[in-house]
Amino acid sequence: MKIVILDTPEQVASYGADRFADQLRHKPGSILGLATGSTPIALYEELISRVQRGVLSFALASTFNLDEYLGLESTHPQSYRYFMNEHLFRHLDIDLANTAVPDGAARDPMVACEAYEHAIQQAGGIDLQLLGIGRNGHIGFNEPSSSLASRTRVKTLTPDTVKANQRFFDEGEFQPHLSLTMGIGTIMEARHILLLATGESKAMAVRATVEGPLAARCPASILQMHPSATLVLDRAAASQLDDVAFYQYIEQENQRLPGSR
Ligand code: F6R
To answer: Is residue 67 lining ligand 1, measured as CB closer than 6 Å?
Structure first.
């Protein structure tokens, strides 16, 4: 795992945008895995700004989102499809037909999950997968105890995750407790993984991911097994790590190598 520790969330977003730009420069028709939540918003703003300045293009790219609430139509303001359209897609030069989010309104969610896996494979697999991390170490909606080999499927959210996401729903509004999510096995097949974490609330999950044992208790710890996973952290998210000085030393050394990112 490559651990990058930056001073501010803005720097985390900018680093992430550089990584996306590198990927698209190298392969304009990249298959990108995307996430929702608070963490990627600043990164998405930076990507939008670059596209609008004409220095970046998603015209040939395709995307697959990690997850979606089960029971919400794509037009529901809290659906992840709606989130992606509003926060990213409609501001980019991407063809909306080339953006995929699991179908939260599917009649048969199991069939929809299988179709999603198939579509990722048909597209040639994900080149770069963006991840956030839950306070309990979840990635996508793969909560603790998820099989580390799981595929796209229906998952129950933990009460903690439901509570953390309550802020997006109006009081008394239906809030789903089920989701469709790429599995951990699905995520691990991405060629490159970029996990962003900002803020102190993520510090214990980051510690368990980087320095803890590989365990279903912390789904993100599986990234220890990925050949190309980068964790980009602000100081607060890195605050519980034991070996900060070592990670910074390695990063400084890496900077000296050409094409290091
Ligand atoms: C969202 C997702 C989740 C979030 C995680 C962190 O598509 O897959 O795993 O990345 O819950 O959410 P934020 O960024 O809101 O703290």
So the answer is: yes
